Amino acid sequence: MLVLAAGTLAASLFFYLNGAHHHGDIDLYHSYAHAFWLAGGLPHIIPTEYPVLAVLPFSLTMLPPVHQPVIVFGLWMLVLFVSGFVVLARRESPRVAEICAVYLAVGAFATAVGRYDLVPLALTLGAYWFARSRRFLPAYALLAAGTLLKLYPAALLPIIAIEQYRVLGRGVLRSWPPAGVLAGVAAFSAIVAAGFGIAYLMEPDGWLGPFTYGLRRPIQVESVPATLLWAGSLAGFPVKTDLSFHSFNLLGSLTGAISIIFNAAFLAGVAWVLWRQATGKLDLGRALVAILLVVICTGRVFSPQYLIWVLPFIAIVERRYNPAWLVVCALTTLIFPIAYSGLHTVGSAPPVEFPLWFLGAIALRNFVMVAASVRFLSRTPPQASLEARQWPRSSAA
Questions:
Q1: pLDDT tens digits for 81-129?
Q2: Which candidate, 103, 94, 137, 95, places its Cα nearest to that of 121?
Q3: Are 106 and 330 within 8 A, CB to CB?
Q4: Which of 8, 23, 76, 222 could crosslink 60 through cysteines, CB 3.0-4.6 Å?
Q5: All residues at 6 or more sequence positions from 339 whose CB lies less than 8 Å from its CB, including other chains
Q6: Does residue 257 have a pLDDT over 50?
Q7: For position 22, what pLDDT does the model report?
């Protein structure tokens, strides 16, 4: 199965990403790395929309310097993919590694080796394994490093903190604050602050770019809010297409209201997940998956590579093929790159109106994903129920 999955991603690299208009992100990575290392003088030029450590995986486009950044970067990511399969097989099981490889090959055909998201994924997996083995300080450190690569691992900080608090044997509202949890959160905060401090010294006008860039982005066409925006257009509320921030977006009269609704849904979802974890109804793995699903489903941007963040953890937690997630994976690849290529939108301006079948495919994928996420969030595994009846536990060493 590893050979088949790796072969699928290799085919993506050599026959899709190496095409004329399909490697814009890798070109962007290469330009950022070139500007950082070779522009000359100080301060270094840091990426506009990415945290400062992102320049490290971006630099893989230059190693070795063979003037083929797409192939070079894709091969690095393919090596990371294969290495991750081997580690998963040893730490979890060969079955889990197989499920993960299939999910990624099906759902991240154009992005697993064409984006750098496998790198922060590796760090979040390491943080999860350290936390699961009750070695929390390295878990916080890896989570901080992941945050300095791509911001989303910061959402997992309260999951790790609550898990450590539970391991200490504390009640939900008693014995706060625990010194060990505070030390871990402080270590995470110090590493992240140091990273952004270095970014400030390098580029005082752009060090907050990862935040300001994200806050300015409109609703991206593949996101769940965009599906509601499109549904509103069917009821007579005007919507138009937009090309900005390296993505295709939808703009409409309902944008403000939908943004408020999904911001509230994000806060409510996070609060619900943290409470269920704190009361023992979600174990560490399921809580981590749940937070990532809340982030993805309520965000105004849903790029196809975001599935890379969560699919391996779903494989670890469920340990079996889930038809719903296979459908989500297949529909995601149907949308990008297949439908995008069919519309000739890659590397060009969007059409005046996206066709019904295109937005319908996105809506179907989002419906299945939200339904699968809600089902995941609402389930309480038997083991977690047992922990809830037994908790608080005695303090652990």
A1: 999 999 999 999 999 999 999 999 999 999 999 999 999 999 999 999 9
A2: 103
A3: yes
A4: 76
A5: 358, 361
A6: yes
A7: 65
**pTM of the shown model:** 0.92
- For 124, half-sphere exposure in the C-beta direction (CA atoms, 13 angstrom radius) is 30
Identify any residues that bridge with 239 across adjacent strands, giving them in sequence order.
Answer: 252
Cis peptide before 312 (omega within 30 of 0): no
